[in-house]
Amino acid sequence: MHITVAGAGIIGLSCAYRLAGAGHDVTVVSAAGPGESTSAVAGGVLYPPVRRPDKRIARWTAATLDVLREQEAPGVRFRRGRVLLASGEPEPQWLRAMIDPVRDGDQLLFTTALVDTPTYLEWLLARVLARGVRVEYRPLTTLAGLGPVVNAAGLGAGPLAGDGSMVPIGGQVVHLADPGLTEFVVDETGPGVTYAIPHGTHVVCGGTEEPGRGDTEPNPGVTADIVRRCRELVPALAGAEVLRSVVGLRPFRPVVRLEREGDVVHCYGHGGSGITLAWGCAADVVDLVSV
């Protein structure tokens, strides 16, 4: 069966790879390449940072973690780290999907994948092309006439589906030179989330959550605030050089939409958890296409 996948971010590429592996003839259509997607801006720590009342999250997370362990892909490293919780916060369902998870008071300790997303996306695109998938870079304004299609177009997926529940949530991050950090740290105790995710050459420091933001121009004041917060959280970053600031627009929906509607399988609304949920969702997409 010929299937069109709308979108070339981490969700779209994962779906295309799985569909081609299942024997389908696949074309990916996207307005821009993977390096220009929101996925390329992500911090890249594999765990669901947004709490949602969705029992599928833990399963999708565990499936993605299993795939990344098997792939041994460039840009992926497994490191132990900490997530600091607000006092009395209940243990999240996804914790059991992590490697060697421990709760110590109001912090969670576990090992997971840290993904340098631009490097990984480049590798994944090459793997997708090697499976015979065609990639076309052009904007899509409708899904009509495409035949069987997977709607994984990130922020563009909502308009393509006529779904007004999708909103952009801006996220600014700062890259600092990596002084040799051996663990990641995420602090969820404040009004926002502060994190430092090391990738060997750089540390992704964040972040912000700005519902409705429409531009991707970094704010110098926000950059300074992120650097201050991260250096307080991780003192080893005190002298680390500021390399760059970048902004991504997360495709947020109150509940991830993964369902079939006629010839369309919708797979969108992952917010900032695309890298965490991608391979689990892709497996479900293959199943839905075969229904």
From TrEMBL:
Enzymatic reactions: a D-alpha-amino acid + O2 + H2O = a 2-oxocarboxylate + H2O2 + NH4(+)
Organism: Amycolatopsis nalaikhensis
Cofactor dependence: FAD
Keyword vocabulary terms for this entry: FAD, Flavoprotein, Oxidoreductase
Protein name: D-amino-acid oxidase
Matching InterPro entries: DAO (IPR023209), FAD-dep_OxRdtase (IPR006076)
A GO term, aspect molecular function: oxidoreductase activity
EC nos: 1.4.3.3
Chain ranges of the FAD dependent oxidoreductase domain: 3-288
Domain of life, source organism: Bacteria
Family from the record: Belongs to the DAMOX/DASOX family.
